[in-house]
Design brief:
59% helix; alpha/beta; globular; 505 residues; single chain; 22 helices
Length: 505
C-alpha cells in the first residue's frame, strides 16, 4: 500500500486517475485543490504535494511524470478500478472536504457514476406539469435555517426555468405530493462547514442528484455571491443531466429534457455537425410540446452557429432568428428564461441594447442569478461605458459556470469583456484556460492569436493559427487581420488586432 498520507496528495492521485490518459494540466489541478489561494501559492503547494507523492511511491515513483504544463501517470504502468464493474459504492466513498472546487468536482463525478434511477416522476410529468418543492417535506426532521432555504430556493429556480412545465412550490405540508424535492443541509464543525443539497423523488425516496461543497470559513461563501450561485447552478445543471435517466427515456418529459440538455452540450462542443444536430433536436422538442423556450433556444443555437461560421449571417438568417424571438415572447411572455435568452440575442447578435436591457431586467426579477440575463447585461453596460459594472457582471457569469458545460463559452465572453476593460493579463490567462477545456472552440484560438501576437509571442500565435487552420477551412492570417467581416470584432475595436498585425504580418 503506497497511499500517501497527505489528503491533498491523495486528491491529486484521484484527479490524475480520472484524466484522459491519466493526465491533467498543472493549472487545472491548482484550481481544483487550491482554488482559494493566490496563483503563486497554489503553484508552490502543487510542487510540495508532488514531492510528497513521489516520496510515498518510493521505487514506483517512475509512474509519476511532470513537465512545465502537465502532470501525468504512465499509462502503460498503471491500472485503476474505474473501468471495472461498479460495486455499489460511491466514487471515492468517505473522501471529501478538501477544497470547494475539488468537492464540487467530486459531487459531479459521483453524479456521473450513479447510473439510471429507474422509472419515476410519472404522476404529473406526462401531464406537462412538474411540481418542484423547495425545502423538505413536512415529515422531514431537523432544523432548516435561512441558508438552507436560500439554497433550496435558488436550485429550485434554476430547475423550474429549464424544466418545461416546472412549477416551484414552497416547502412544507402539501395536499399534493410534489414531483421533485430540493432539500439542503448545512453541517458545521471545528474544521469548517459542509453544504449538501439533494434533489429527490419523494414518491420513491430516490436521489436524482446530490452536491457537496465545503468551506473552512462559511463567511467566504456568504459574502461572495458568485460562489453561492455556482454551487446552486451546478447542482441544478447536473440534476438536469440525470433527470432523463431517472424519468425513463420513454417518458415525454424525460425525452424532451434529454433533447434540450443534449442540445446544450452539442452547441457548446463548437463542432459544426453537432451544432446542427442540436438545432434539429430542439425543433423536435418543439414539435412534441409547443413552448417559447424551445423557440428561443433555436434562435440561440443559430446565433452560436453564426459566431462559429457554420451558418451565414445574412438577411434571411437574421430574419428567421428575429421571428423565433418574437414568437417565443408572444407564446411565453412571463417565462424568465425566454426573456433572458432573448436579451442575450438582442445584445450579442443584433446590438439592440435598450431592448436587451429591458428583457434582462424582467428576467432578473424572477431569478437574480439568471446566467443568460447577467451575460446580456454585461454587454449592455459595455455599451453604456460602465466598464466596471460590465466586468463584475461578466465575472459573476464566468465564476457561476465553472465546472459546467457552459464554462468555455462564458470564459471567452468574459475574455472579451476583460479586453475592453483593459485587463489583458486576465484575458490572456482565461483564453488559455478556454482553449484547454475546449480545444475546438474557435473563439479561444482567435483570442490567443491576437493577445500573443500583440505581446510578441510569435511562436505561440502561429501555433494557434495553425490550430485554427485545422478547424476552419480556408483560414489564414491575412483574412484574420484584414477581412472586416471575420468574427474578431472586439479584438479589432480595442486596437489589439492592429498591434498584433504589426508583429505577425
Amino acid at each position: 500500500d503506497l497511499t500517501p498520507r497527505s489528503k491533498k496528495a491523495r486528491g491529486l492521485l484521484a484527479l490524475l486517475a480520472t484524466g484522459d490518459n491519466f493526465c491533467r494540466s498543472r493549472e487545472w489541478i491548482q484550481q481544483k485543490l487550491w482554488s482559494t489561494r493566490e496563483d503563486v501559492q497554489a503553484k508552490g503547494s502543487l510542487r510540495t504535494d508532488l514531492q510528497n507523492l513521489r516520496k510515498a511511491l518510493g521505487a514506483a515513483r517512475t509512474i509519476l511524470n511532470t513537465d512545465r504544463n502537465d502532470v501525468w501517470l504512465a499509462k502503460d504502468l498503471v491500472t485503476t478500478d474505474l473501468s471495472g464493474p461498479a460495486n455499489g459504492a460511491d466514487f471515492l466513498e468517505g473522501f471529501g472536504a478538501l477544497d470547494p472546487d475539488f468537492d464540487a468536482w467530486l459531487a459531479q463525478r459521483r453524479g456521473q457514476n450513479s447510473g439510471a434511477r429507474g422509472q419515476i416522476l410519472t404522476r404529473n410529468a406526462d401531464k406537462g406539469v412538474v411540481r418542484i418543492q423547495c425545502g423538505p417535506l413536512a415529515k422531514a426532521q431537523g432544523p432548516h435555517g435561512a441558508l438552507e432555504k436560500a439554497i433550496d430556493d435558488q436550485v429550485g429556480k434554476f430547475l423550474s426555468e429549464f424544466i418545461i412545465g416546472g412549477q416551484r412550490v414552497a416547502g412544507g405540508d402539501s395536499s399534493v405530493l410534489p414531483d421533485l424535492v430540493v432539500q439542503s443541509s448545512v453541517e458545521r464543525s471545528d474544521s469548517g462547514t459542509a453544504l449538501f443539497v439533494q434533489i429527490v423523488d419523494p414518491s420513491t425516496d430516490r436521489l436524482i442528484h446530490t452536491a457537496l461543497s465545503s468551506f473552512t470559513d462559511l463567511s467566504q461563501f456568504l459574502t461572495q455571491p458568485d460562489q453561492f450561485a455556482r454551487f446552486c447552478w451546478n447542482a441544478a445543471d447536473w440534476a438536469m443531466e440525470e433527470l432523463p435517466s431517472a424519468l425513463g427515456h420513454d417518458n415525454a418529459l424525460g425525452h424532451r429534457t434529454e433533447l434540450v440538455q443534449g442540445a446544450f452540450r452539442d452547441t457548446l462542443s463548437f463542432d459544426g455537425a453537432r451544432m446542427q444536430a442540436a438545432l434539429t433536436n430542439v425543433q423536435l422538442a418543439q414539435s412534441q410540446r409547443s413552448d417559447g423556450v424551445f423557440l428561443v433556444l433555436q434562435a440561440w443555437i443559430m446565433m452560436s452557429m453564426i459566431f462559429e461560421e457554420f451558418m451565414p449571417e445574412n438577411a434571411d438568417t437574421l430574419g428567421e432568428i428575429r421571428a423565433l424571438i418574437d414568437r417565443a415572447e408572444k407564446m411565453s411572455p412571463s417565462n424568465p428564461l425566454v426573456s433572458a435568452i432573448s436579451a442575450n440575442l438582442q445584445a450579442m447578435l443584433f446590438e439592440e441594447f435598450d431592448g436587451a436591457f429591458a428583457a434582462a431586467q424582467r428576467s432578473l426579477k424572477g431569478n437574480h442569478n439568471n446566467f443568460f440575463a447577467l451575460q446580456a447585461l454585461a454587454g449592455c453596460y459595455v455599451r453604456m461605458g460602465n466598464m466596471e459594472k460590465a466586468y463584475q457582471m461578466s465575472l459573476k457569469c464566468s465564476q457561476m459556470a465553472r465546472n459546467s458545460k457552459f464554462e468555455a463559452m462564458s470564459t471567452i465572453y468574459h475574455v472579451l469583456i476583460c479586453l475592453q476593460a483593459n485587463r489583458e493579463d486576465e484575458a490572456f490567462r482565461l483564453s488559455q484556460h478556454a482553449a484547454e477545456i475546449a480545444p475546438d472552440y474557435r473563439a479561444a484560438q482567435r483570442s490567443l492569436i491576437g493577445v500573443m501576437g500583440k505581446r510578441g509571442d510569435l511562436a505561440g500565435a502561429h501555433a494557434h493559427a495553425n490550430k485554427l487552420m485545422t478547424l476552419e477551412q480556408g483560414f489564414n492570417l491575412d483574412r484574420f487581420f484584414r477581412d472586416p467581416d471575420y468574427p474578431v470584432h472586439t479584438l479589432r475595436r480595442t486596437g489589439l488586432l492592429a498591434q498584433a498585425q504589426t508583429r505577425l504580418m
